[in-house]
Amino acid sequence: MSSPHGARPDTSAVRRPHRWLLHGARPFCAWLVRRRYRVVVHGAGNVPSTGPVILAANHVGVIDGPLLAIFAPRPVHALTKIEMFTGFLGRFLTQAGQIPLDRFHTDPTAVKAAVRVLRDDGVLGVFPEGARGSGELELFHRGAAYLAHVTGAPVVPVILFGTREPGGASSSLPRRRGTMDLVFGTPFTVEQAAWPRTRQLVGETSQRLRARMLDDLEAARRSTGLSLPGPLPAGQHEPDPGGGITEKSA
User: Fold this and answer.
1) Active-site entry in 5, 18, 42, 59
2) What residues does each domain of the chain span?
3) Cα 101 to chain centroid, rounded
4) Catalytic annotation present for 237
5) What is the pLDDT of residues 39-72, one digit of tens each?
6) Of 250, 188, 192, 230, the residue nearest 213 (C-alpha)
7) Crossing angle for the helix pair 26-36 and 64-71, nearest 10 degrees?
């Protein structure tokens, strides 16, 4: 039986991101975070316990990525903007198995690393909005849908609450003793599509995924009674690379 790594995109020569720190440090990191915050996980049973999974989360604050990697039911390799991979933080992110992504240029290295994770039955984290903001999914990019079509992995929507205070800056942390919630939705599945995956196919799937995540966002609001923090302060929005499916990210 041939290896899935030989299919396009070919990942047979791609090294899987580091795992030892991602797996081994999770209990300590969870303990550390819980010393400062209350963290509540809803719907953990919606994440398949085995096989490839894509976690697609809204993006509100700077702590979203670490929160997902530490408190998801399974360790997560998240696509993370390449600007964060400098100095000590960059080395830590690399050792923790996070994947650098150049959002403003075609990045086949990041794509192949993400596909490698999924073809090895791992969990990949994606923030379809592409940057921190209101978390209302006003921006929505195609990456999660593309990777789902390439690998056949189910997409589990994740709604994050409490990771930034209302009016808080992009890089701010929630207040001490605040509560952060992760709400995992039921899997969104698509059929694996043979190469080439067309832009139209990926765009249509992205539209359906966004509609599903908006439904999950409203359901999470109702079930938890929580709300998102609103837009970032003026002048703090990062440039958007375009290429998304909404008017704001087209």
Assistant:
1) 59
2) 37-163+176-228+240-249
3) 12
4) no
5) 999 999 999 999 999 999 999 999 999 999 999 9
6) 188
7) 120
